[in-house]
């Protein structure tokens, strides 16, 4: 129980927490007429209680009518509209004019006569289009009722001859030759009748007519139909196995699309480095005003057709370098490209181009670390008492151009199954990582490839440093497609001693340079001293830190169950100072 003082009014003798009230069951009865309802509530016990107000409207928690009912605990609202649902709440007020918050909301649906809708117009009767005289022909139809009522049907056999009301399928024979227009009508259980259906013409003759088979019901006999099972197609003028309608639609779409890319290099089984440079010919389109907006690049492993690289780029339009560690050495691949114009229209895919990556001697022992970057056999960067090179869950590497060593560990991540490869680069060298590259990267640039158990998995990878990262440094990621650097702090958590950082990455999503959920995460990144934050663009897309960080923060909050507790506490405080106990409204 709390007490509070309201400015400009005396202390109120009683105050119950606003949010701790018990919602009572609703009791509904209708007095005299269906267009009125009586509501009741428990009396407040404050000594200076002056009365109550009743509020109602036709939308939940939105009250358009407000009635001062004085100091009573029951009230009848009349003049309600039949068939309409109303929502009610009550408030109390004291002699000084202080008013409580709303009580619970109750609703009441005013009874009203349901409007019966007629059934829909039945379908054109199905059945034979020809028959001999005195031979029964069965016709069927169907309709629906908006009120869900059961239906019965009758048929007009032509010339005003009507059948009795009955089942949806009925039979008829004619004694005289001629043509008869057969129609159907539906009636519901409340005697509401539909309109008559369209007519089915039946030809009755004295001799047996030729049998006409039309399997797909498109009006073209199977004997003349190139596609007897497709009601949308019957002609194939060019004899290409595709109907004329589909050919026309495909031709119209092709006329609006850019030309498919022409692959320039590598093609014809070229042998290239594992950082293959892909190049196409120029963008071409016949559509006026349509510019080259994006290119989609895909690379597949030749032996199993697995897609190892799939990205859409707004910057790498006719040439792209595949990020490091995406491709394996000594492996055959094929690739293709697709152009997308500024109107959002995509070209057809290019023809496939084939290449192989060269095998080098950089990693003779095949442990996934360049031989020149291997750490000493005594190194234990995660301080678990075991040497790093004796464990499968961690790979440690010397960072080029520095005295630092970094260990990449998945030992605490159940979704990761292997650290496939790790390598470092001297951040000071002139290379392709040039656009907006931070000037001070004390630990250099590290690339690593992680295998996850299921494509699309999220993995938390921990990097251990041989020395503490600078106090005001951050973790930055490089986007090799857009050639941009971005602050990755939303997904990076440094340890208190700054001797390690935990990175949250997702296969095919944030932190994965290959762009495809294929069970492999490739991530080029590094430590950047804070003074260089401004060297990276903070707006735009395609790798800029603005949208990139917003997306990262959103996914990180969702993953961690983030909640604005300070805002919640402020709301609770506001609720705690309301002066009245909460009214419990019920319909009686």
Note down, in words, how this protein is organized.
The chain is mainly beta. The chain folds into 5 domains: 18-109, Sandwich (Immunoglobulin-like), CATH 2.60.40.10; 130-205, Immunoglobulin-like, CATH 2.60.40; 222-256, no CATH class; 263-357, Immunoglobulin-like, CATH 2.60.40; 371-543. 7% of the residues lie in helices and 32% in strands. The chain has a 5-stranded mixed β-sheet with strand order 14-20-19-16-17, with no helix packed on it. It is flat.
For the secondary structure, the number of strands is: 31
Instruction: List the quaternary state of the chains.
Output: single chain
Principal-axes geometry comes out as flat
- Unreliable runs, pLDDT <50, ≥5 residues? 1-33, 532-582
Structural class label: mainly beta
How far apart are the first and last residues' alpha carbons, in Å? 30 Å
* Rounded mean pLDDT score: 81
Helicity range: under 10%
Largest sheet: 5 strands, mixed
